[in-house]
């Protein structure tokens, strides 16, 4: 589904954020990306979401080199990737309901369907009672959850999340991780950058460890050594 082949990213100004990264994330797989602040986690996610371009190497999405996509193919790729970033970029003059509904409105879904799906998504993140509020009236954690509802509403096959539990208390973090697990069990490919090692450990999923722009560990890959579900 997602494949990095010897990818490096150097930002203007000289920072080498990623150095010769190679890994694959299969269709329907779930993995965490962890590592110190500045290790390159956000950069890696941005390269998948086409928010940044690699300086070297290739990022493949469903077998296609995203660096070589024609301009008109980019919106198609973006629709297939749900993105949850730390700055959730809500429209502050639009109600929670409309913020979440936005991707479906753009896709031309009927209002009846939009209403049903927005309510289901808000229910999933525990915000059904806040649909008429405006984002500035919500706490940081609540705004983050609106961002999650908006990212999953169009049912994209891939979900990328950058520190999705950063502003949440432990109970809510655990609940949200359960939501990600459920989405993964329904076939969504999920990649989550997180510092929350306790939570990550408890979930028993694959973990990619980044250090100074390199992958220094890849633990618990499905079908990989020690996973218990390989053929051998
Ligand atoms: N737009 C940019 N321009 C220049 N340097 C950047 C830019 N974005 C990130 N960097 C640098 O690239 C390196 C990796 O940053 P990145 O945000 O990917 O790390 P991270 O692992 O996500 O960190 P954190 O956990 O703090 O979010 C850092 O040294 C950072 O300063």
TrEMBL record:
Which Gene Ontology terms of cellular component type are present? plasma membrane
Q: Which domain of life is it from?
A: Bacteria
UniProt record, GO biological process: cell division
Q: Which UniProt keywords apply?
A: ATP-binding, Cell cycle, Cell division, Cell membrane, Membrane, Nucleotide-binding
Q: How does it sit in the membrane?
A: Peripheral membrane protein
Give compartment(s). Cell inner membrane; Cell membrane
Query: Any idea where the ABC transporter domain is?
Result: 2-231
Q: Cite a single GO MF annotation.
A: ATP binding
Protein's job: Part of the ABC transporter FtsEX involved in cellular division. Important for assembly or stability of the septal ring.
Subunit annotation: Homodimer. Forms a membrane-associated complex with FtsX.
**NCBIfam families to which the protein is assigned, alphabetical:** FtsE (TIGR02673)
The similarity comment for this entry is: Belongs to the ABC transporter superfamily.
Protein name as annotated? Cell division ATP-binding protein FtsE
Primary gene name: ftsE
């Amino acid at each position: 589904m997602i494949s990095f082949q010897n990818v490096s990213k150097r930002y203007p100004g000289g920072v080498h954020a990623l150095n010769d990264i190679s890994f694959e994330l299969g269709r329907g797989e779930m993995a965490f990306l962890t590592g110190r602040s500045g290790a390159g986690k956000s950069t890696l996610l941005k390269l998948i979401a086409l928010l940044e371009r690699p300086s070297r190497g290739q990022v493949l999405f469903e077998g296609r080199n995203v660096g070589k996509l024609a301009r008109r193919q980019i919106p198609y790729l973006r629709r297939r990737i749900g993105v949850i970033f730390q700055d959730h970029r809500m429209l502050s003059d639009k109600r929670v309901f409309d913020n979440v509904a936005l991707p479906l409105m753009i896709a031309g879904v009927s209002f009846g369907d939009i209403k049903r799906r927005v309510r289901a998504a808000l229910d999933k993140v525990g915000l059904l009672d806040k649909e008429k509020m405006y984002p500035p009236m919500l706490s940081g954690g609540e705004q983050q959850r609106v961002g999650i509802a908006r990212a999953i509403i169009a049912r994209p096959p891939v979900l990328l999340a950058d520190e999705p539990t950063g502003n949440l208390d432990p109970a809510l973090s655990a609940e949200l991780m359960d939501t990600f697990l459920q989405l993964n069990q329904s076939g969504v490919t999920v990649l989550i950058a997180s510092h929350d090692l306790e939570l990550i450990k408890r979930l028993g999923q694959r973990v990619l460890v980044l250090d100074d722009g390199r992958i220094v560990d890849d633990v618990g890959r499905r079908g990989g050594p020690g996973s218990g579900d390989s053929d051998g």
